[in-house]
Amino acid sequence: MPSHKVIYDTDPGVDDAMALFFLHYHPDIELVGITTCHGNAPVEITTRNALYLKERFGIDAPVARGAAGPVTGDDAHHAAVVHGDNGLGEIELPAEIKTKAIDTPAHRFIIETVRKHPGEVTLLAVGRMTNLALALREDPEIAGLVRQVVVMGGAFGYRGHLGNVTPAAEANIHGDPHAADEMFAAAWPVTVIGLDVTHEVLMPQDYLRRLGEEAGEVGRFIWDITRFYENFYLDKGLAGISVHDASAAIYLVAPDLFETRSGPVRVVCEGLAFGQTIQRPAGIGFPPNDWDGRPSHAVCIEVKDQPLLDLYRQTLLRAV
């Protein structure tokens, strides 16, 4: 029996799709829901992409559409330059998708599922944190009912890794910093998979080509959607694509591949450093400050890259 019930909060997204495949094919994971949000594309597109992936690859989990923009009501910003206008690397997609989202909005689906399975559900959030913040606003008690929260987002300067949309901020947090700060304020156990580790793991073209050759339809699909995505990284001078969302998914079943640092986390919500994530490391004394009274969370600072890549490949080979 799977040992992890997971709600995947996502904005598909090329790397979101790659993480979804890991969740779908790993035997220890039961994907109990997919919730969508704004981010890599508008929520209409990210929801369509989630439904398309569900339909094409036989994923049982229901899809619930989520927030279209930040909790402040500000305009949403998207990442077409990275993922393409259709969010999936500009591959050809069908004009119509038969599968439909459920009527329940994403944040309420999170609440209802967590309450149905107290202490069992992991929230894996790899887009903006808007749906999580909305769930907390409607039902703050769910913070004590989740098993854990794992998020892909943020950058803490470890090994010199800073932001990817500004020198200070990573895209998922920058896209709704107020929601992220509310999420970090809640007394649920959060582990952060940020650029400090995801920029340390690269999938070079040879790795992706091998997946395309060996992992059947899903491997060929990954090869296709990463052509546009890979060009973005090659243009930046990197030797492959950074493994963002899949690293967070892999943490669920292989936390031993990561090293973490504990302490409360704040998000800068105005000014030059808008969207920056800052942790006050545990064990270091400071005068009274804005981190006081906030719960401690785990921020990943080291990763074993080759074992992570091996586990991803081994899992996807189960699709054949």
Automatic annotation (TrEMBL):
Keywords recorded for this protein, A-Z: Glycosidase, Hydrolase
Which superkingdom does the taxonomy of this entry point to?
Answer: Bacteria
What CDD domains has UniProt attached to this entry? nuc_hydro_CaPnhB
- Domain Inosine/uridine-preferring nucleoside hydrolase span(s) in chain numbering: 6-306
Q: Which InterPro entries match?
A: Inosine/uridine_hydrolase_dom, IUNH, Ribo_hydro-like
Kindly give the Pfam families that the UniProt entry links to this protein. Answer: IU_nuc_hydro
For molecular function, the Gene Ontology terms on record are: hydrolase activity
**Signal peptide from the UniProt entry:** none
Name of this chain's protein: Nucleoside hydrolase
